[in-house]
Amino acid sequence: MQHPDVITSMQNPQVKRLVRLRSRRERERDHVILIEGARELNRAVGAGLDVQDVYLCPPLYSPEAADVAGRLPGRHTHLSAPAFEKVSVRDHPDGVLGLAASPTPTLPEPAQDAVVVVLHGLEKPGNVGAIVRTADAAGAAGVIVLGRGADPYGPNVIRASQGSVFTVPVVAWEEAPALEWLRGHGFTLVACTPDAPRPYWDMPLTGRVALLLGTEHQGLPDDWREDGAVSIPMNPGGGADSLNVATAAALMLYESARQRHAQLASGSRA
Does domain 115-269 have CATH number 3.10.105.10? Predict the structure, then answer.
């Protein structure tokens, strides 16, 4: 049975607002983020975000959405399937979408073995989201997105991260304050760049380390390469001369985790 107050009109003010909020400029103007997907919205709630409005479409529910929908906080509004598909940013929506107040995350006081990821100029939401997800899985202390790259809380970054943007601190900073924070906290800056002669597994990645990644075509500015640069060796007999930046980030993060584990194991045997 259809919900008695379901919104069906594409001209409804709430539907028109949700369409408008697919734009980063509009979200920033309204100080909200758009979170689509049952898993992502559930993780946002679990992280303490202020979810204000939830939009539901039971005919589109996935099993996970059916389980989560009734437990979500905020005002609940039902949309028809055509109306929900109109506001969705996905090809196959699961019938759950929410609006939350824009988060204002900060990086915590770093531990002595903290690893952070610094992203310079990355514009593709899929790459940024995948890196945030890997940073979360590898135990990184945070992710710094420099300048006006991909919106770290845009709906496509949230989706690609599987909601990890709500469980690992992700901040958008300009270059100068980011560099000041990292230097002030004693981080070693390790830039991943194709022209570096040193392979990444030969670089010490323990202690406070910032792993720096840029775009494949622009690379990283000199200011971010002062402490050292590493590369990911390519098969000389192959045609590939670089890796996707999310893959490069995963290799760097897990090499750092491997070195830390080895250091702890060595210390325990001493």
Answer: no
CATH topology of domain 13-101: 60s Ribosomal Protein L30; Chain: A; (3.30.1330)
- pTM for this predicted structure: 0.91
Q: Using H for helix, E for strand and C for coil, what is the string for the chain?
A: CCCCCCECCCCCHHHHHHHHCCCHHHHHHHCEEEEECHHHHHHHHHCCCCEEEEEECHHHCCHHHHHHHHHCCCEEEEECHHHHHHHCCCCCCCCEEEEEECCCCCCCCCCCCCEEEEEECCCCHHHHHHHHHHHHHHCCCEEEEECCCCCCCCHHHHHHHCCHHHCCCEEEECHHHHHHHHHHCCCEEEEECCCCCCEHHHCCCCCCEEEEEEECCCECCHHHCCCCEEECCCCCCCCCCCCCHHHHHHHHHHHHHHHHHHHHHHHHHC
Residue-wise pLDDT for 212-247, tens only, equals 998 765 566 777 777 788 989 988 877 776 789 999
Q: Taking the domains of the chain in order of start, what are their residue ranges?
A: 13-101, 115-269
pLDDT tens digit sequence for 61-107 = 999 999 999 899 999 999 999 999 999 999 999 999 999 999 988 89
Alpha-carbon distance values, 193 to 132, 148, 225, 240 (Å):
19, 21, 9, 15
